[in-house]
Amino acid sequence: MLRLGMPVIGVTDIPRAVAFWTAALGLVAVQEWQSETWRTLNHADGSGRALGLMRSASPAEPRPRIHLDLFTDSAEEQQAEVRRLIGLGAQSVAWDLYPPEPDFVVLADPDGNIFCVVDLSHTPSGGEQPAP
Fold first, then answer.
1. CA angle at 43 for the pair 51 and 59, rounded to the nearest 5°
2. What are the backbone dihedrals phi and psi of residue 57, each rounded to the nearest 5 degrees, phi first?
3. Are strands 91-92 and 104-108 parallel, antiparallel or unpaired?
4. Is 85 helix (H, G, I), strand (E, B) or coil?
5. Helices 14-25/75-88 angle, 10° precision
6. Number of C-beta neighbours around residue 6 at 10 A
7. What pLDDT, on the 0 to 100 scale, is given for residue 128?
């Protein structure tokens, strides 16, 4: 049976990416498949794989078709997390595609990979989780 594994981010500097993403999301780097070109990051609670980091020579896309959305529960939490992530090495992105009253902030990791920090209380659904 086919199932979704984990998102993989292409990076130019594996140790820098490990440092950023483990601090950003509270993940842990594990030995599974570790090499000079790969690191697996797991959830700290032991519940499994969360993110793969793969060395890539290609540049980050300025408007990627696939990206990560990181969720917060309030505008205050969103603002605090954006500040924390920038302190860890993320960069603000001059995003010209923001809608009026956006519920997300666009950032880039130290490699320039775009991701969003989303305030779930401001989403069109009002923060309600979709039914399983």
1. 20
2. -90, -15
3. antiparallel
4. helix
5. 150
6. 12
7. 56
Could you give the CA distance from residue 67 to residue 73 in angstroms, rounded to a whole number?
20
Mean pLDDT, all residues of the chain: 93
61 Cβ contact partners less than 8 Å away, ≥ 6 residues apart: 114
- Chain center to CA of 112: 11
Residues 90-106: what's their mean pLDDT?
94
CA 74, CA 118: separation in Å to the nearest integer?
9
pLDDT on residue 122: 82
- H-helix segments, 1-132: 14-25, 75-88
Distance, in Å, from the CA atom of 49 to the CA atom of 89, rounded to the nearest integer, reads 23
Tokens of 98: 């923001």
Using CA atoms, how far apart are residues 11 and 33, in angstroms rounded to an integer?
Answer: 16
The pTM for the full model equals: 0.88
